[in-house]
Amino acid sequence: MNQYIKFIINYSNLILGKVSLIFSILLSTLLCYSEENHEKIVSLNTAFTEAAYVLGKSDKLIACTTFCKSPSGDSRIIKIANVLNANYEQILYLKPDLVVLSGLTSRNTMQFLDKFKISYKIFYQEKSFKDICDNFIAFGTLLGCYEKALEIVNDSILEVENLKLKNKSIHPKIFMQIGSDPLFTANDNMYLDDLIDYSGAVNIGKDSKIGYFSTEEVLLKNPDFIIISTMGATAIKDKEEWKRFECINAVKKNNVYIFDPYALCIMNPKSFVTSLKELSRILHG
After folding, report:
1. Average pLDDT, the chain
2. Looking at the structure, do residues 158 and 46 belong to the same domain, yes or no?
3. Considering 183, 192, 237, 253, which has the largest number of Cβ atoms within 10 A of its Cβ?
4. Which residues constitute the domain of residue 187?
C-alpha cells in the first residue's frame, strides 16, 4: 500500500505539477485494478514482451513475434507471428490462457481468438508517458504483479521528474525524424513529444497534423538538433542527406544524430527513462 500512496503523489505531480487531493482520490478510484495471474501468455505486442522481462515475469511467456528481442540465450519462447499476422495453428497447439495484442493486430486474428474462446487483451499505441505508465500497470495486473508494476512506475516517474529539473535551463529546437518516405515526425499526439518536452527541448513538429512534415518546413523552423530514428541503413542515408543543408543550425553544429528506433518504438516506464537520459545527454552533454 505504501507504494500505491507514493505512486498517487508522484503521478499527481507529473500530471498537474502539484499534488491535488481531489485528483488523487479520483485517481485511486480509476486505478483499482483487479489482479489476475495468467501463466501461459502469447505476446503479439512487442512492447509487452519487453515489459514481461522488465517485470521479471518472462517465464509466463510461451510465444511472441519475430520483431521481439528476447535477452540473449532465451530460446524457450517461440516466434509465431510478425507484427500483423500470427500462426493460428501454433496458437491452438500452445493453448495460451491469454494473448496480448496491439492496435496493429488484424481483425482476422481477433475473430480467430473469439471463435476458439481464447482470452485476449489489446494494448493500443500510447500517446503519452502517462499512457505508458497506465498500460504497464494494467499489464502487471494480468501477470499477477500489480505491486511490482506500481513500484517500477513510481521509480520511473521520480527519475523523469529529476531529469526534467536538470533540463530546464536550455531549450534547443529539435526535429525528430521517425520516417523517411514520406518525411514523418513526432507530433503532440505521440509519447515522443513528451520525451522531447521532458528533455528540455522544443519539438518543431509538435503541431503537425498526423506527423507528416516537409524538408521546407524543417529549413524554415531551423532546428538546433536533428534526431533520426529510422530503420537500419535508411538512418545512415538520411543523415548524409541532411548534411546537404548547411544552412540548418543542426548541420552547421554537427548536431545530427541517429537514435536506436527499437528503443523509441518499444516503450515501458523504464525504457522511457533510459531514452530520456540518452536524449538529454545528446542535447545537454
Report:
1. 87
2. yes
3. 192
4. 169-284
Where does a domain end: 104, 131, 162?
A: 162
End-to-end CA distance of the chain: 39
Query: Considering the entire predicted model, what is its pTM?
Result: 0.87
Of 162, 182, 208, the residue that ends a domain is 162
Nearest to 174 by CA among 151, 197, 153, 152: 197
Give me the half-sphere count of Cα atoms (radius 13 Å) on the Cβ side of residue 113.
Answer: 24
Packing angle of the helix pair 146-166, 2-16 (nearest 10 deg): 40
CA distances from 113 to 63, 95, 243 (A): 15, 11, 49
27 pLDDT more than 60: no
Q: Is residue 121 part of a domain?
A: yes
CB 164 within 8 A of CB 18: no
Q: Virtual CA dihedral for 128, 133, 137, 140, nearest 10 degrees?
A: 100
Q: In the numeric block, which cell numbers belong to residue 272?
A: 522511457
Shared-domain flag, residues 128 and 214: no
pLDDT per residue over 105-117, tens digit each? Answer: 999 999 999 999 9
| pLDDT level of residue 34 (50, 70, 90 thresholds) | low
Q: Bigger pLDDT: 136 or 22?
A: 136
For cell 510478425, the residue is 82
